[in-house]
Amino acid sequence: MRGPDIAWPAGAWTPEQTVTFLFDRVEAGDFYILCPDNEVDRQTDEKRIAWAAGDITENRPPLSRWHPDYGTAFREWLEA
Known about the structure:
Radius of gyration: 16 Å
Largest sheet: none
Low-confidence stretches: none
Strand content: under 5%
Oligomer: single chain
Distance between the termini: 39 Å
Mean pLDDT: 89
């Protein structure tokens, strides 16, 4: 349960929701587990992960989607 002294982001899951989801996915046989956050859909999470892998293979700066030189390219790629 969310405590009154914790400033939870609006889309954040509670620890209990996260652990329940984790165990459900492990029981289903998943190795990689992408936990939802009520703000971004799974497809967007997957595209962000693919872009981040491209940071390595294309020698971009880490977390380039927030970098001023790559932000526009990321947004265009994400919408494509």
